[in-house]
Amino acid sequence: MNLYPLAKPSITTAEEKAVVEVLRSGVLSLGPKTKEFERAFAKKAGAKYACAVSSGTAGLHLALLAAGIGKGDEVITSPFSFIASANAIMYVGGCPVFVDIAPDTYNMDAEKIEAAITKKTKAILVVHMFGQAAEMGPIMRIAKKHKLKIIEDACESIGATYCGKKAGTFGESAVFAFYPNKQMTTGEGGMIVTDSKRVYELCCSLRNQGRKEDMQWLDHERLGYNYRMDEMSAALGVAQLKRLNMFIAERRKIAQWYYAYLLKHQDVIQIPATDPKNTHTWFVYVVRLLRASVHRGAIMERLAKKGIATKPYVPSIHLFDFYRKTFKYKKGDYPVSESVSAASLALPFYVDLKKKDICVIVNELLSAVKSYGK
Ligand SMILES: *Cc1c(COP(=O)(O)O)cnc(C)c1O
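Above are the sequence and the pyridoxal-5'-phosphate SMILES. Below is the predicted complex in structure-token form.
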């Protein structure tokens, strides 16, 4: 029973009603709500097409298939991400090749990309971490020079921009996600956006057992999956999308409060850096413990006793057991990612939080940190 959970969706009675209406309609899948959500989402994302799927992970799988990534292909990506981005590369038989991150934005360090390119490199799976777009200027130049496809994992960064251009509009395709801790939710759910009719039609077929787009159950032209979004989720998505601007504005306000309270304590806690080229949409608020980082576990425990949930955000993917075993990764391979992983702490972050809540959380955090800082 946390007083302050890490994340919490904001659901209105109007949204409850929208879901109940679908339930009463009897059309629970392959219906009008999914189409409505896709149309509205494409418009919001600034893309020609949007294909709704059952999760962000499913979306990444299909986006990589549509990009033609297959056995033996190398895909450059970030070790500092949710595991789904690297896993999806392996679903299609590809090999994730990690490039270390920048120590300030926690996104892939564009300067280190070219050294990782080989004859087998086919694409860059860019992850826009924590609500902030990656360095898309240099990344796009590198992709063009080496003829690599760009696929964007924008699951954490809906609404973010880089130099005024929306995250999710740079690559061949981009994927968004609607798990309950994201900026907007459908329960489980994801969305692939693209300007390519070919990619769109292929993803629509792949999510639906490889069926032809005319929706007949009679023919399957390729190996497909069931990655469909259901109508209840889509109805919730339609309603949440209408509140997305408000969600993002609220998240900015809360980030600003954290910033204001933590500003004077940067000797013990490092606050997140925002690149002025970017607009940040704050998926999470992640600080770094400085001197006290070795006591992170104890600090988390102490905060938990006060009802404040925190979490290391995020462990570096290459050090997960499965990745160590499969690719022989070891400590020290991506030192920046590892050092951020070792000291990071996500604080409670959701739209219902008030200024006084942030004050309570920060005070408890500071007293916990300072008890170990001496
Ligand atoms: C949330 C997320 C995903 C997708 O997660 P699902 O739970 O499958 O929707 C993918 N990549 C990143 C970086 C994420 O944060």
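Residues 244-262 form the longest helix (19 residues).
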